[in-house]
Description:
The complex is a heterodimer.
Chain A: E1 5-7, E2 10-13, E3 19-24, E4 31-38, E5 42-50, E6 53-56, E7 65-71, E8 74-79, E9 88-95, E10 105-106, E11 110-114
Parallel strand pairs in A: 2-11
Antiparallel strand pairs in A: 1-3, 3-8, 4-5, 4-9, 5-6, 7-8, 9-10, 9-11
Chain B: E1 4-5, E2 10-14, E3 19-25, E4 32-38, E5 45-51, E6 56-59, E7 62-67, E8 72-77, E9 86-93, E10 102-103, E11 107-112
Parallel strand pairs in B: 2-11
Antiparallel strand pairs in B: 1-3, 3-8, 4-5, 4-9, 6-7, 7-8, 9-10, 9-11
Amino acid sequence: DAGVIQSPRHEVTEMGQEVTLRCKLISGHNSLFWYRQTMMRGLELLIYFNNNVPIDDSGMPEDRFSAKMPNASFSTLKIQPSEPRDSAVYFCASSPYERSTDTQYFGPGTRLTVL
Amino acid sequence: DQQVKQNSPSLSVQEGRISILNCDYTNSMFDYFLWYKKYPAEGPTFLISISSIKDKNEDGRFTVFLNKSAKHLSLHIVPSQPGDSAVYFCAATRSGGYQKVTFGTGTKLQVIP
């Protein structure tokens, strides 16, 4: 059974450009998380969806970031315009339930570099 | 404000010895704690967890200890193996429905053969 799939794996772009990161959940999972990993702050939750509905977006840095879940198995995270400080590894994770104690299954991540 | 802190960015241990990874938290409302392991170019994977009603949980070579009064937990790996070389993230949350899981910055463990 395929795990969480993310694309692209690497993205290099110039400041001001739009970036779209993609995530496919594990089949049957109904919770979706987007995280950002940096050396200074570790793994930070950006946004959480349950049954395609955004539940917690308190971690979204600012209006330049937006996330959607157009169907039960797919999500996008968009940064527009991108800035050098957005350079990080972005992970999405899915979980079968919405309990915080449930295991989250992470994708391999997208390494974003904004020049 | 870092509510979950892993103060050691890295740790080196000889194969066969014990590895001890430490984690401190500041939010007294946290009652469930998790450890995730991450290899390069992969996402984190769940390793072991503990509820605040316990002070120890063991799974094979991995044991997590919780000291609620000190707001401190530790992960023990005995014996350490080269395949354990990875970044270990400590995480904390509140149980019951959805609650945000707060991760630390990670500790990179290197097990030397």
